[in-house]
């Protein structure tokens, strides 16, 4: 007696396009993840004196896949603001004061109607306070990731499923022969 099984080839793995299938699925997933995370970070980012317009920190946050190094696809969510890291991590007490003039625009916005001389006095007091006491970080990048880690993994799990689906399976096991008999 013998059992006869037939396996037919189907899908990307048998047609030497598996690397393209994997790269496309992972790149698509990385675009989704970096876009999603950059929006999550922006939602957690405090709004400065420019509000939601201008060149404030919120407008300088971006996410994108990058194709360098040993990994197939990497992604980054970052910012191009000189104050982004300070807002994220905060500032320790006892450090030197922020630079002169760095808070003037914010002071004029927060304390509407003050003249420049008064704004400079207020700025000096705020700068001194920041230098002396510091301030806590907002951790918008860290929290965006930790609060959404399961969603991120779900996107990549879906990419794995899509890779598997696109590559195809060993789709046809023709079946068990009902032949009963001797050796083939």
The assembly state of the depicted protein chains is single chain
Helix and strand element order: EHEEHEHHEHE
Q: How many DSSP helices?
A: 5
State the distance separating the first and last CA atoms. Answer: 9 Å
User: How many structural domains in the coordinates?
Assistant: 2
Name the strands of the widest sheet in spatial order. Answer: 1-6
Description:
With 184 residues, the protein is mostly helical. The protein folds into 2 domains: 111 residues, no CATH class; 41 residues, no CATH class. The protein is 47% helix and 11% strand. It has 5 helices and 6 strands. Strand 2 and strand 3 form a beta hairpin. Helix 1 packs antiparallel against helix 5.
Annotate the secondary structure layout.
Elements: E1 7-8, H1 18-44, E2 61-66, E3 74-79, H2 84-89, E4 90-91, H3 104-110, H4 116-133, E5 135-136, H5 140-167, E6 172-173
Antiparallel strand pairs: 1-6, 2-3, 4-5
């Amino acid at each position: 007696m013998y059992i006869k099984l037939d396996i037919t080839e189907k899908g990307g793995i048998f047609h030497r396009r598996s690397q393209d299938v994997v790269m496309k699925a992972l790149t698509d997933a990385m675009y989704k993840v970096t876009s999603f995370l950059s929006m999550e970070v922006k939602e957690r980012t405090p709004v400065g004196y420019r509000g939601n317009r201008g060149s404030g920190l919120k407008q300088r946050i971006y996410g994108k896949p990058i194709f360098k190094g040993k990994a197939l696809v990497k992604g980054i969510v970052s910012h191009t603001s000189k104050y982004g890291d300070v807002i994220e991590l905060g500032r320790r007490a006892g450090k030197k004061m922020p630079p002169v003039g760095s808070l003037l625009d914010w002071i004029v916005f927060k304390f509407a109607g003050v003249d420049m001389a008064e704004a400079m006095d207020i700025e000096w007091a705020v700068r001194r306070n920041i230098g002396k006491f510091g301030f806590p970080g907002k951790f918008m990048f860290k929290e965006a990731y930790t609060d959404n880690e399961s969603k991120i993994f779900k996107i990549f799990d879906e990419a794995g499923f899509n890779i598997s689906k696109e590559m195809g399976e060993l789709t046809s096991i023709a079946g068990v022969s009902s032949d009963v008999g001797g050796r083939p």
